[in-house]
Design a protein that fits this description.
The protein is an alpha/beta fold. The chain has helices spanning 2-26, 139-150, 180-197, 214-223, 259-269, 278-286, 292-313, 350-356, 359-385, and strands at 30-38, 41-46, 55-60, 65-71, 73-75, 88-94, 97-103, 112-113, 121-125, 160-164, 174-175, 178-179, 202-204, 228-235, 248-253, 321-327, 339-346. 36% of the residues are buried.
Length: 386
């Protein structure tokens, strides 16, 4: 009896340690509790607050597949992946990764985002139709395909205003003897060309090296009744950290406590805010921080950022996704339509600077911005139709 009584407490302690270890091991995991297809989107629900940084998105070819890996995530039960249609497959890919595979034609451009009012959800737009279309090798079908590509303009006549930042006496950031104002004008012209190829009318706030005051730029967008306003810039940091900081970021207008976003906004606003008080600046910014424009700008920023990163990573390694952020950029204050500011990279970073002045790299950025705009407009139309 004495031996048995001694063994029992040891067994209890061992059981408690195993239970504690198991709890600690899995406490960092989130659980995907539900997956449903609704209004052309895959709607995913989670047991606790979901961090969108835990999503890794990439593309596989032959056939074209959009892959979404949800890190630190487990399926709640075997029924979660069921009933999602022909396009979507889902499984517990690894112990800590849930993989979603969306199969579609090559032209499909998904939009993935976290709803503004739900921190426990994640939505991915799905391709239209019943499944993947089979290729036809007949001459007539090839001719039809060529015609469709040539006249690809799902949002024809919707004017886009492209703003190349800085200009004239305002050089913007300088790195390695290269000037921001020159770089962003080169990229803006490529975006213009890409959008026009897709059937959009485009208005450029500047086509040459001259200075425009920031309020003038958004007034143009309102006067021309543009559907969206895109301002293109390049980032920079101090020499002491120039080799460490790089990446692509997209911003929409909103006040923020984030020190990095505040620093970037302060640098971009510097040329126009001389002589104004902090109070007067905040009064104007606060007056435009409410309403649907902010929500729509956030959606536009998500689509543009995602397509830029996806395109660049097909040809270049080490492309850093700085994400979608919000900050009080003065150039976005005056616009009464969805407006974003794209920081295409850090001109202060040696490798990224070299890439930014490469024609192929610029073309991939421009294509990403154009695809992101089309993706946003397509989703907006879908929301209106529903």
């Amino acid at each position: 009896m004495e031996k048995t009584s001694k063994i029992m407490p040891n067994f209890s302690r061992l059981f408690f340690l195993v239970l504690l270890l198991n709890t600690l091991l899995f406490s960092g995991f989130n659980t995907m509790t539900k997956a449903v297809v609704k209004k052309g989107e895959l709607n995913l629900s989670f047991s606790k607050e979901f961090n969108k940084r835990n999503v890794k998105h990439f593309i596989l070819s032959h056939p074209h597949r959009e892959i979404y890996d949800f890190k630190n995530t487990r399926l709640a039960h075997k029924k979660v992946p069921l009933g999602l249609g022909n396009h979507v497959r889902m499984a517990q890919y690894k112990k800590n990764i849930v993989r979603v595979v969306i199969t579609a034609t090559k032209g499909y451009m998904p939009s993935a985002y976290q709803p503004m009012l739900s921190t426990r959800a994640y939505h991915i737009s799905l391709p239209k139709g019943k499944g993947v279309k089979k290729k036809s090798h007949s001459k007539s079908s090839k001719n039809k395909t060529k015609k469709k590509v040539k006249s690809y303009n799902p949002h024809k006549y919707e004017l886009i205003v492209i703003d190349a930042g800085h200009g004239g006496h305002d050089t913007g950031a300088i790195g390695g003897g290269k000037r921001e104002k020159d770089l962003v004008l080169q990229i803006a012209k490529r975006v213009e060309k890409e959008l026009k190829r897709r059937g959009h009318p485009v208005y450029m706030t500047r086509k040459r090296d001259h200075f425009l005051k920031l309020p003038q730029r958004t007034k143009i967008a309102d006067k021309k009744k543009a559907v969206v306003f895109i301002s293109i810039h390049a980032n920079a940091v101090a020499k002491s950290i120039r080799n460490k900081i790089h990446g692509i970021e997209t911003f929409f207008l909103q006040n923020t406590r984030d020190a990095k976003s505040q620093r970037i906004a302060a640098r971009e606003n510097k040329s126009v805010l001389k002589g104004t008080t902090k109070l007067s600046r905040n009064v104007i910014i606060d007056s435009v921080l409410t309403g649907p424009k902010i929500v729509e700008s956030n959606k536009l920023a998500i689509d543009v950022q995602r397509r830029m990163i996806t395109n660049l990573r097909t040809k270049y390694s080490g492309v850093k996704d700085g994400g979608v952020r919000h900050a009080p950029f003065w150039v976005l204050v005056g616009a009464s339509r969805p407006s974003i500011l794209v920081e295409v990279g850090y001109i202060s970073h040696p490798r990224e600077r070299k890439r930014l002045f490469n024609t192929q790299y610029q073309s991939l950025i421009a294509k990403g911005i154009a695809e992101g705009i089309d993706s946003y407009l397509g989703n907006r139309k879908k929301e209106i139709d529903f």
